[in-house]
């Protein structure tokens, strides 16, 4: 699908159930969490560190955004790229975003080697994502409308015809309204309101 018309993305709405993968005495606990900003990552990690205080590593990866993507992968003391990137690879494989996947490792006394670690972290992340309820969300574009009260009926008719969502409204002599629509219809909606007489429309950043 053309990225310009792609207006949906996959994510999770609830944290996953805990999963456990064992390899040569080491235990790997996997979790997936929905997030909407980087500031949510640290509290989740601190909660898991408190819960698994005897563990050796708390490795993770996250991805945010559907159009402008940001991500991070953290090995937390494991050999370079042996934990965070295999976890992030599964986020990419499942095509999900706005998500944090954490794998907590208890060392079992036997070293797994880089190849063994990559496999273990990848498998645990995969198990956590398989336990997650992945859902599709729509990318919505928000606009601000300003118009005189006498034009309210015209505005409401256009909102109904285009199946737009009203986010907020202030109805006085000078009315203000915030509306939203699917990304793929945004250009058409903008042009309709812009060409309408006595209605000011601005896209919200």
Mean pLDDT: 93
Strand count: 11
The CATH C-level class name of the largest domain: Alpha Beta
Query: Outline, from the CA principal axes?
Result: elongated
What is the name of the CATH architecture of the largest domain? 2-Layer Sandwich
Distance between the termini: 25 Å
Radius of gyration: 23 Å
Q: What do we call the CATH topology of the largest domain?
A: Ribosomal Protein S5, domain 2
Number of helices: 5
Organism: Flavobacterium magnum
InterPro entries: Impact, Impact_N, Impact_N_sf, Ribosomal_Su5_D2-typ_SF
Family: Belongs to the IMPACT family.
Protein name: YigZ family protein
What is the gist of this entry?
The protein is built from 5 helices and 11 strands. With 205 residues, the protein is α+β, with helices and mostly antiparallel strands. The chain has a 5-stranded antiparallel sheet with strand order 2-3-6-4-5, with helices on both faces. A 4-stranded antiparallel sheet has the order 9-10-8-11, with helices on one face. It has a two-stranded antiparallel sheet with strand order 1-7.
What would you note in describing this structure?
The protein has 205 residues and is α+β, with helices and mostly antiparallel strands. A hairpin with a 3-residue loop joins strand 9 (165-170) and strand 10 (174-182). The strands form three sheets. A five-stranded antiparallel β-sheet has the order 2-3-6-4-5, with helices on both faces. It has a four-stranded antiparallel β-sheet with strand order 9-10-8-11, with helices on one face. Strands 1-7 form a two-stranded antiparallel ribbon. Helix 2 (84-93) packs parallel to helix 3 (113-130). It has five helices and eleven strands; from the N terminus they run βββαββαβαββαββαβ.
């Amino acid at each position: 699908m053309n990225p310009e018309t792609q207006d949906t993305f996959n994510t999770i709405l609830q944290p996953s159930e805990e999963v456990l993968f064992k390899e040569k005495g080491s235990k790997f606990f996997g979790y997936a969490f929905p997030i909407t900003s980087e500031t949510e990552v640290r509290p989740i990690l601190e909660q898991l560190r408190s819960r698994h205080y005897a563990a050796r590593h708390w490795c993770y990866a996250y991805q945010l955004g559907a159009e402008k993507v940001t991500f991070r992968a953290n090995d937390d003391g494991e050999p370079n790229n042996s934990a965070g990137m295999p976890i992030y690879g599964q986020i990419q494989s499942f095509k999900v975003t706005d998500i944090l996947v954490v794998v907590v490792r208890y060392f079992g006394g036997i070293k797994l080697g880089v190849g063994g670690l990559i496999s273990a972290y990848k498998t645990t992340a995969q198990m956590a994502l398989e336990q997650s309820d992945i859902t599709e969300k729509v990318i919505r574009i928000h606009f601000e409308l300003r118009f005189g009260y006498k034009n309210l009926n015209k505005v409401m008719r256009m909102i109904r015809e285009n199946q737009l969502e009203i986010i907020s409204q202030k109805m006085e002599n000078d009315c203000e309204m915030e509306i939203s629509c699917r990304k793929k219809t945004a250009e058409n909606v903008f042009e309709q309101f812009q060409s309408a007489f006595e209605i000011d429309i601005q896209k919200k950043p």
